[in-house]
Amino acid sequence: MDMTDEQRTYKRFKAPVGTVMYTADSMRQIVDIGTGGFSLNLKHLDREVFAQKKTVDILLGGTLLREVPVTVAWDDQASSPGKNAAAKENVVGVKFENLTEQQRTLIDDFISRHIAGNA
After folding, report:
1. CA gyration radius for the chain?
2. Where are the domains of the chain?
3. Which residues lie closer than 8 Å to 95 by C-beta, 6 or more apart?
4. Which regions of the chain does DSSP assign to beta strands (E)?
């Protein structure tokens, strides 16, 4: 599935290095982020574990958000030619669900600073 900005409700921005999602099982770099969610690449073996998660921790520019409620919004499996099945990666779109006021404020502030070049 090709998700363009025109198809999204919320615009996303390329996430700076160090913007990561944590679960008890893994840590993944967030590719892009917006007020409605984020996307990341998951290896084939991580995908099932992540799909079961209801909350994740997110590091945004030095601020750790704990137990952020999320759901998988879309999943686009991609594989590189010549790679085996275990090397496949999935681009996964993640939607924020029922954020607390503090979580929403921290995400909005991070995005505002990032747009201004200060994240």
Report:
1. 14
2. 5-115
3. 36, 37, 70, 71, 72, 73
4. 12-14, 20-22, 27-34, 37-43, 55-60, 63-78, 89-96
CATH 2.40.10.220 fits 5-115, yes or no: yes
One-letter amino acid of 64: L
Rounded to whole angstroms, the Cα distance separating 119 from 111 reads 8
Q: What is the pLDDT of residues 56-89, one digit of tens each?
A: 999 998 899 999 999 888 877 654 455 445 555 6
Please give the model's pTM, rounded to 2 decimal places: 0.75
Q: For all residues of the chain together, what is the average pLDDT?
A: 78
Residues of the chain with pLDDT under 50: 1-6, 79-80, 83-84, 119
Given a contact cutoff of 8 angstroms between Cβ atoms, the answer to whether 28 and 38 are in contact is no
